[in-house]
């Protein structure tokens, strides 16, 4: 099958690689323009662009697809199918209709739950017991199209945003190949999404990653996992940002934000209900460290306070 693939984030790479391994012809890969990254803010290609170049596929990086020229350029590839995975740009009707069989999307949730930009983080923050992937026929709505296939997976107690996203990316690639195979022989059938259970996974605002110590420990533990490995949960210690890469529920209690203990097992901080044991932290300008290594070079004692967000 002749396919045009649109994707940007690392989540999309397994799907692109699976299509190639299954013998499909990927005529072109669309990905977002190179963005500044790292401390030097050097322009860097997306993960999908790197994978496409390695495979020898033509790469297109339009700033927008909302022009007649963009639609004509995509249609010139004469695709049977457009596959969209974590692309990051809105596709107008002219693009959605450019391929003979329309556009498929690999989405990281069990639709209609968590439509939108950040389904992985939102599922973790909400404490969902399971999530999954959907292969969806795209329409003009926001993740509202009919679904060909769902693959559920439990959310494990130690899942982070990174580990869950990796698992869903692999599940999505496998499910995508199954649906494309069904489309080739005309047996794949999409089912409309149910009206009940729909909710929106809003794009993550980095301010959400600041730990509010007045919240219950369970909420903050989920926050740490949801934002690992990026953008990372954080708090303020002695006027500087302290990022948190790992945490467990503690056993103590006290005024929110107060350090209850600091030792080899971690830094225990009182929350609005219960306590949180910080096991991995990153000081400003430094690298992520196990708490015991962080404490080896710094004196942090019980009774100190980690700051909560300012009111308002």
Explained architecture:
With 312 residues, this protein is of the alpha/beta class. The chain has 2 domains: 200 residues, Rossmann fold, CATH 3.40.50.170; 91 residues, Formyl transferase, C-terminal domain (Methionyl-tRNA Fmet Formyltransferase, Chain A, domain 2, Roll), CATH 3.10.25. Helices cover 25% and strands 28% of the residues. The protein is built from 8 helices and 17 strands. The strands form 4 sheets. The protein has a 7-stranded mixed beta sheet with strand order 5-2-1-6-7-9-10. A hairpin with a 4-residue loop joins strand 15 and strand 16. Helix 1 runs parallel beside helix 6 and helix 5 runs antiparallel to helix 7. The N and C termini lie far apart (54 Å). The relative contact order is 0.11.
Give the rounded overall mean pLDDT: 95
Specify the CATH homologous superfamily of the largest domain.
Formyl transferase, N-terminal domain
User: What would the principal axes of the Cα set say about the shape?
Assistant: elongated
Order of helices and strands: EHEEEHEHEHEEHEEHEHEEEEEEH
Quickly count the helices: 8
Query: Unreliable stretches, pLDDT < 50, 5 or more residues?
Result: none
CATH-derived topology of the largest domain: Rossmann fold
Give the radius of gyration.
22 Å
Strand content: 25-35%
Strand arrangement in the largest pleated sheet: 5-2-1-6-7-9-10
| Annotation, overall tally of beta strands | 17
Distance between the termini: 54 Å
User: What is the CATH class name of the largest domain?
Assistant: Alpha Beta
Q: What can be said about the biggest beta sheet?
A: 7 strands, mixed
- Secondary structure: helix percent: 10-25%
Structural class: alpha/beta
Count of individual domains: 2
CATH architecture of the largest domain: 3-Layer(aba) Sandwich
């Amino acid at each position: 099958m002749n396919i045009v693939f649109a994707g940007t984030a690392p989540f999309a790479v397994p799907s692109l690689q699976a299509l190639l391994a299954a013998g499909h012809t990927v005529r072109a890969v669309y990905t977002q323009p190179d963005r500044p990254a790292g401390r030097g803010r050097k322009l860097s290609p997306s993960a999908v662009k790197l994978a496409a170049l390695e495979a020898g596929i033509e790469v297109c990086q339009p700033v927008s697809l909302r022009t007649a020229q963009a639609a004509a350029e995509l249609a010139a590839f004469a695709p049977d199918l457009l596959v969209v995975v974590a692309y990051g740009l809105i596709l107008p009707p002219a693009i959605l209709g450019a391929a003979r069989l329309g556009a498929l999307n690999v989405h990281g949730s069990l639709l209609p739950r968590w439509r939108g930009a950040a389904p992985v983080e939102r599922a973790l923050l909400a404490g969902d017991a399971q999530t999954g992937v959907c292969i969806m026929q795209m329409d003009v709505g926001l993740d509202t199209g009919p679904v060909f296939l769902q693959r559920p997976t439990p959310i494990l107690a130690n899942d982070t945003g990174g580990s869950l996203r990796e698992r869903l990316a692999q599940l999505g690639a496998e499910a995508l190949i199954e649906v494309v195979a069904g489309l080739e022989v005309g047996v794949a059938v999409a089912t409309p999404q149910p009206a009940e259970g729909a909710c929106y996974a809003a794009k993550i605002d980095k301010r959400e990653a600041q730990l509010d110590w007045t919240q219950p420990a369970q909420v903050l533990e989920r926050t740490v996992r949801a934002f690992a490995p990026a953008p990372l949960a954080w708090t303020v210690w002695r006027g500087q940002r302290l990022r948190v890469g790992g945490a467990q529920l503690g056993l103590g209690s006290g005024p929110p934000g107060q350090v209850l203990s600091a030792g080899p097992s971690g830094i225990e901080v009182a929350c609005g209900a219960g306590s949180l044991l910080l096991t991995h932290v990153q000081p400003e300008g430094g690298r992520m460290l196990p708490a015991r290594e962080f404490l080896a070079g710094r004196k942090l004692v019980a009774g100190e306070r980690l700051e909560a967000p300012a009111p308002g």
